[in-house]
């Protein structure tokens, strides 16, 4: 697989290094001459000096035969330009963008970026999952299906405690996939009784997320 990485910071460097170790053909684009030279020495010449936001640089990099373009600069605007150009102008099948500001995620999705990765959002989710008390954590977004995978802990005061699942008014597009109760893994059925401190994993569409929070008392 031929992969072009835009942005030669630490993220771009370690990503390129890892992809090369997996046997992929990778080219890292970095616009700083000094940085590009240093990276070239570290990555066995798999580096091209040039601005990944410019079509001429992407042409030189052979973007027309690229399977994936990944934009990991420190600027969301640049990452958007890189991926949009790859997608719309050069018909690259798969684009992945680093998101420095999680608020830009919806915009990137609307503009056709295939995958967005937000380190900030991932760290916040990890921290939230480790905090005591009720929590509701977005684990993953399934863009093509329009669904999210969420984790929530049922608080003691939740209105669903002691109820069978068939007695709970779930959002229309929501499925409870798994319940972790202590060391026990439960694949819920209509008769499953919900208990306080259950860790529940659910599939829900974006519009139903807030309703799910209210239903389980995690809002």
Automatic annotation (TrEMBL):
One of its GO terms (cellular component) is plasma membrane. Residues 1-119 form the RCK N-terminal domain. Gene3D superfamilies: NAD(P)-binding Rossmann-like Domain (3.40.50.720), Regulator of K+ conductance, C-terminal domain (3.30.70.1450). Keywords: Ion transport, NAD, Potassium, Potassium transport, Transport. InterPro entries: K_uptake_TrkA, NAD(P)-bd_dom_sf, RCK_C, RCK_C_sf, RCK_N, Trk_Ktr_HKT_K-transport. Residues 137-218 form the RCK C-terminal domain. The keyword DNA damage does not apply. One of its GO terms (molecular function) is potassium ion transmembrane transporter activity. Coiled coil: none annotated. This is Trk system potassium uptake protein TrkA. It comes from Reticulibacter mediterranei.
